[in-house]
Every structure is written in C-alpha cells, then in structure tokens.
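From the thread on structure requests for the teaching lab: each student submitted one protein with a one-line request. Submission from student K.M.:

"Model ATP-binding cassette domain-containing protein from Oceanomicrobium pacificus, tokens only."
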Amino acid sequence: MDPIVSIKALSKRYANGFEALKSVTLDIEKGEILALLGPNGAGKTTLISTICGIVTPSEGSVTVAGHDIVTDYRKTRAMIGLVPQELTTDAFESVFDTVSFTRGLFGKKRDDAVVERVLKSLSLWDKKDNKIMMLSGGMKRRVLIAKALAHEPEILFLDEPTAGVDMELRKDMWEVVRDLRRTGVTIILTTHYIEEAEEIADRIGVINNGELLLVEEKQALMQKMGQKQLTLDLQAPLDALPDSLMDYALELGDGGTSLTYTYDTQAKRTGITALLGDLSAAGISFRDLRTSQSSLEEIFVSLVKDSA
Ligand SMILES: Nc1ncnc2c1ncn2[C@@H]1O[C@H](COP(=O)(O)OP(=O)(O)OP(=O)(O)O)[C@@H](O)[C@H]1O
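Reply posted by the TA:
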C-alpha cells in the first residue's frame, strides 16, 4: 500500500538562515501510530507544521495521499487534523459550538451528527453545553482533539499531547489516542518522553538538530533494549579464549581480565548457566560479576550525542 504521507529530502531554512530540518525522508503508513521523539528545538514542530502547510519547505517535497502539500494545499490540509500544544481561543463558547465551528473552517457543511460522534468518542458528550473555560485541563485537551477531528481528517498530528500534564492525565490521553487509531485514523505525535513513545507508538522516529536519526518499529527497538551484558572479572588474565567457549561470542577485555557475554533477556534461555558450567570446565574462575542493560533511553542519548 502507498504511504499516506511521503516526505522526501525535506529541508527548512528559516529567514534568519537557521536550518531547522535537514533533508528528512520518511514514509508514514496508513493506520499507524508514529512517535517523533526528540529534545527541545529538534525540529519536530517544524516538521509537523510543514506537512500541515503552515511552514513552507525550502527544499524537498511532501505528499499526502499522493497530493503535493504545496500545489494541492487545500486538498491535503483538509485530510489533516492538527492538535496544537495549547488551547488559545473560544474560552466563552460551548464545547459543541467550538467543535462545530472548526468543521466550517475546512469548508465542510454543518453536520451535528458528526460533531456528536466526535464528542462521544472523546467522552465529551455530557460536557457539550459547558463553556470551555469551565473545563478541567484534561477535558480541554480532549476539546483540542475534538476540534482537530471535526472535519473528519484521515491523519491526526498531536504536538506534545501530554507536555506538562500529570501521569494520570497522560495515561488517559494514551487511551484516547489508542481508541482513535481503532477508528482508522493515522496518528503522528511528537514527544519528549521516551515512555510515551514506548507506550503507544507502532514506530518511533528519533529527531535531533533537524535530522531524522532513525525510524524503527518499536518492537525492534525494544529488542535492542532487551539485550543485556554479563561481565565477569577473572581471577587470572587470559591471552585467548579456549575453543570450548567460541559459541558464546564472548568479548575479552581489560587486558584479558574480563569477559563480557551479551544475551537476550526475552529469549527462552539466556545461556548463562551453560556458560558458567563451560567456564568452570575450562578452568576459568572469576572473582566478581555484574550485568548491565542498554535502555531505550541510553540508545536515544547515544544517538543524540553522536549526531551533535
Ligand atoms: N520562525 C523561526 N525562525 C527561526 N528559527 C526558528 C523559527 N521557528 C523555529 N525556529 C528554530 O528551529 C528549531 C526547531 O524548532 P521546533 O519548534 O521545530 O523544535 P521542536 O523539536 O518542536 O522543539 P520543542 O520540543 O521545543 O517544541 C529551534 O532551534 C527553533 O529555535
């Protein structure tokens, strides 16, 4: 299937010469949840804003369902819902009117049934007559999503959906996002939080200094995370590994005084018991041992550091 969004060698230089995006290439599949993970100023908002037609690209191209975002702006914009970081308007309006009005901004006819469906899907129906200013923070965030969905877009962008919210509300938002995906909407969200990407995304893209450093299935990233290292400090240094230990892919370090074994924590057998038995049989004894694990956080930090 063709990707719903196709980004090719996209660059953005702002008027002051700052390069906020550097040749980003990325395909987004229909129906997936993609998390764009990156520190402050990485270029996440610039990327989203460009796809939505708010920021004009300097180089490269973006298509949405095969249509170019520059030459076919109206068509592509109508397919996209954008949830900004903060609610800026409509404090005195009712929930229903606010959401209904937004629909009109995209040239769609008034359709109370659609607004009702959107509000119900976000558990906002019983708040439909409330003024926005009277709502709790969590409900206000839901209204932002409802506004973005009012014109029935196929793609939803959420810019930092849980920035500055407490854990309970964050979990609540994750549930909302999962429910939306079940309705067939493609979701792209930006986040600072690794746990957030880990929790809800199908794929994770890491962006830093305007560069897309990696895009990978979450499961594949988790597998890297699942690797652990066992390091043994040896009683006596070894010049070389005996043949009987070749199958373990051990690394001999620190001038032959330590051995490191990498294993998969998710595998049925880690191989540690067999390794210790074979070490003993080879007459190798150790005085200490420790394990370490690379977390997604560490993978992320090392990626970002390498690209700095
Ligand atoms: N209009 C502009 N003119 C010049 N530079 C800009 C402009 N808008 C953004 N930038 C710069 O581009 C870089 C990327 O900004 P962007 O808002 O895309 O990052 P971000 O990843 O969304 O960060 P945050 O998580 O803080 O929202 C930043 O260094 C920012 O200062």
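TA comment: The chain has a mean pLDDT of 88. The pocket of adenosine-5'-triphosphate is lined by residues 14, 16, 18, 20, 38, 40-46 (CB under 6 Å).
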